[in-house]
Design brief:
The complex is a heterodimer of chains A (498) and B (227).
Chain A (H helix, E strand, L loop, with lengths): L1 H18 L3 H29 L2 E3 L4 E3 L1 H30 L12 H24 L3 H19 L5 H36 L9 H7 L5 H19 L7 H8 L2 H29 L3 H23 L4 H22 L1 H33 L4 H4 L3 H4 L1 H14 L6 H15 L3 H26 L13 H19 L3 H14 L4
Antiparallel strand pairs in A: 1-2
Helix pairs in contact in A: 1-2, 1-4, 2-3, 2-4, 2-20, 3-4, 3-10, 3-13, 3-19, 3-20, 4-5, 4-10, 5-6, 5-10, 6-8, 6-9, 7-10, 8-10, 8-11, 9-10, 9-12, 10-12, 10-13, 11-12, 11-18, 12-13, 12-17, 12-18, 13-16, 13-17, 13-19, 13-20, 16-18, 16-19, 17-18
Chain B lengths: L5 H24 L3 H26 L3 H28 L11 H20 L18 H17 L3 H23 L4 H29 L13
The chains are: A mainly alpha (498), B mainly alpha (227).
């Protein structure tokens, strides 16, 4: 019941927004649905903590701690962004941004597009986390791309078409590799399970027999999955769509893309990692993951250092963090897995917050280029500017913020596991990212400002940012017991436990 | 009876798979978009026939559904949709691909060779007896379709031919699924087909808008976002 309800709520919101004729109705449908979704997600976490994994519809839907964590994070980002979106689009409408569309789409149909597609987008992400069947998971991941392509083209500029084209084509190629990988996994299990039904691709069935799977096939399957879902997660060298899509999509959608969708893609990768490490040795997937993880961190460094646009800066940051999480998975073991789930949680909160702050700055100055704003954002936008700088410090792993803890855990696991080269490169690239981000954002936020009016409190946008900030700061010192428990259990599942 | 003889079925499938490969290489050598889409339709039709043949010889009725699904969506509907798009945007011919056509054909040949080498590692002679082994030899063709589809996407400049490359890639995966495991479970197949259809619609709309905006469909002109 609970699992079905979680999936129904966003679908209902999409239907209502599609049918609505006025903006307030769409906003209400989205706000209500995402609030309900968050409550349901919390209920799911409580249930999963109490009873272990739960399933519904004959095992079609299933949730263990790992899926519950992904659902909780997705619901959280969805809720924060839906509140932010209300203020964001009203501001756009006031400033007549929608009239710049080269194809002349009118405001209300644009809003309908956003408020319909976003719940659908969230629905497909939830289905990724809740589907037990790896085939269904693939279908849902592909659906996340298809529902978000038109969010990227939202503003209808020439550049947004370019970004959407790259996003759709690179994503499409990546996901077809993942599909081939899924089919090969099915094949490697085929002779063991001897079933032609849906159960032959159910993860919970596969995982119990993984040790007997055909090893050659599984090796090839894992490579394809890594390339495929890695493309979706935006790890190097398949990351090129990311900065474009993130900087062209409307800010709340970019925030969802950069945090929740990244989690979903990694979640898919983790499910196959568990199968592969049971079938082969954890070493085989581990080495591949380390290679791609460290590469992603390395590639993002020069782009962060020379970046001239702060939304693209954040996108390269996300590539870096995708690399960190993939490295954590590659390091493996109980500690590496815990580092991964911790980092996933902290990154989701911090990165969505950063995008929202960047959005407020963007809307105030009508540009996302460093050289046009120069400096002194904090004087004109005291609240958003301060939070932007603080969240930047958090995301580059400055103590006391929580990302320092998770990165420290990952580093500790890497040293303990004997991955010295990866650990050293991790630190080196981390320093590069730190320097680039703090230099750019620090220069943007601090310093003297040009003359201008000081912004007042934006009720919708600033409240969303405030809540998210409070959570980010709080997490640095204290994680609520149940949440930490959930993260720990999820980590155990990643490490191959029950 | 010849219709019950698995040897005959095997030959039939091999022949159709060979035709599928020939069509694929033809698409690489072909500049006219409409011809390309028709070749794609024919290729999908052959894939549906392969699926139906396997269903017949293995007495596996659920594969008939897969065959019908492929026939309706990939062999008929998708080519029609794409052809309509071509008439709408009035671009009928691919300009120079990055690598010229004779070399492209040679590259496709090399990729086919590579596919055979890869498929060799999946070859299990102990299973190659009786009707259960039907279609296993088409795996090499499937991998070749996958690789050539990939090459087409890199090599062509037109947005629509990139879509075509993606579809060929998908056909390769379909053939791999059919030849390895006699298709994935039906529900998944439905989901995949649905996703594919939506993907083509989404890409079609994008192609149309790119054409309206840039007055061209040349994706190498999409190069404003850098760094």
């Amino acid at each position: 019941m609970l699992l079905a309800a979680i999936l129904t709520v966003p679908l209902a919101a999409a239907g209502l927004s599609f049918a609505a004729r006025k903006r307030p109705a769409m906003e209400a449908a989205n706000l209500g649905a995402f609030a309900a979704l968050f409550v349901l997600a919390v209920a799911l976490v409580a249930r999963v903590l109490r009873t272990g994994s739960i399933s519904a519809w004959n095992g079609f839907l299933r949730s263990d701690s790992l899926s519950a964590l992904v659902v909780l994070l997705t619901a959280f980002v969805g809720l924060i962004c839906s509140v932010y979106a209300v203020g964001y689009f009203r501001d756009d409408e006031r400033n007549r941004v929608f009239e710049e569309d080269i194809l002349g789409e009118v405001t209300i149909s644009k809003l309908r597009k956003y408020y319909t597609l976003t719940p659908l987008f969230v629905f497909s992400m939830l289905l990724v986390a809740l589907a037990d069947n790896l085939g269904v998971m693939w279908v849902a991941l592909e659906a996340t791309t298809l529902t978000s392509v038109f969010l990227v083209t939202f503003y209808g500029r020439a550049t947004s078409l370019e970004a959407a084209w790259k996003y759709a084509i690179i994503g499409g190629v990546g996901l077809s590799m993942a599909l081939l990988g899924t089919i090969l996994t099915y094949y490697s299990a085929h002779n063991v399970l001897e079933t032609e039904t849906l159960a032959g691709l159910n993860w919970s069935v596969l995982v119990t027999h993984a040790a007997q799977f055909d090893k050659t096939t599984m090796k090839l399957a894992f490579i394809l999955i890594l390339l495929g879902y890695g493309t979706k997660a935006g790890i190097a060298p398949m990351h090129t769509w990311k900065p474009d899509a993130y900087s062209e999509a409307p800010v709340p959608a970019a925030a969802i893309l950069s945090s929740a969708t990244l989690n979903c893609a990694l979640y898919g990768l983790v499910r196959f990692y568990i199968l592969a490490s049971r079938c082969l040795e954890p070493d085989y997937p581990g080495r591949l993951l380390l290679l791609f993880g460290v590469l992603s961190m390395g590639i993002s460094v020069p782009f962060v250092l020379i970046q001239s646009n702060f939304r693209r800066l954040l996108a390269y940051h996300t590539i870096d963090h995708a690399g960190i999480m993939v490295t954590a998975l590659g390091v493996g073991g109980p500690l590496g897995a815990l580092g991964l789930t911790l980092h996933m949680t902290f990154h989701t909160v911090a990165k969505s917050l950063l995008f929202l702050c960047a959005g407020t700055v963007y809307q105030h100055f009508r540009t996302d280029l460093f050289r046009k704003i120069k400096s002194g954002v904090i004087r004109l936008l005291p609240f958003a500017g301060a939070v932007f700088f603080m969240a930047t410090l958090a995301i580059v792993g400055t103590p006391p913020f929580s990302l320092f803890q998770s990165e420290f855990v990952i580093l500790q696991a890497a040293f303990a596991g004997g991955h010295y080269l990866s650990a050293v490169l991790f630190v080196v690239f981390g320093v590069g990212i730190f320097a680039g981000a703090v230099m750019h954002v620090g220069g943007l936020v601090l310093g003297p400002a040009e003359a201008g009016t000081i912004a007042r409190w934006y009720p919708w946008r600033d409240s969303a940012v405030l809540v998210s900030t409070a959570i980010l700061v709080l997490m640095g010192f204290w994680l609520p017991g149940p949440v930490f428990h959930l993260i720990q259990n999820a980590g155990r599942i990643v490490a191959g436990g029950p | 009876m010849i219709w019950q003889d698995p040897q005959f079925g095997n030959r039939l499938i091999t022949m159709m798979a060979a035709l599928v490969l020939v069509l694929q290489i033809m698409m690489v050598a072909q500049r006219w978009l409409v011809t390309n889409f028709r070749a794609f339709g024919l290729q999908s039709f052959l894939l549906a026939s392969i699926a139906a043949t396997i269903a017949h010889f293995n007495h596996a009725p659920q594969i008939y559904f897969v065959a019908a699904l492929t026939l309706v969506f990939k062999a008929i509907l998708l080519p029609l949709v794409l052809e309509r798009l071509v008439t709408k945007i009035e671009i009928r011919q691919e300009i120079e691909p990055f690598v010229n056509i004779p070399i492209s054909v040679i590259v496709s040949g090399l990729l086919t060779l590579l596919a055979y080498v890869v498929a060799e590692s999946f070859h299990r002679p102990e299973e190659a007896i009786g009707p259960a082994s039907l279609g296993h030899n088409t795996l090499a063709v499937a991998i070749a379709l996958f690789l050539i589809g990939f090459f087409m996407m890199i090599n062509r400049r037109k947005a629509l031919t990139q879509v075509l490359g993606l579809l060929c890639l998908e056909n390769g995966i379909f053939l791999a699924a059919i030849s390895l495991t006699y298709g994935v479970p039906l529900l998944i197949e439905l989901g995949i087909t649905f996703d594919l259809l939506v993907a083509v619609m989404v890409l079609g709309i994008l192609v149309y808008r790119i054409r309206e905006t840039f007055d061209s469909m040349d994706v190498s002109k999409l190069s404003r976002l850098r760094g």
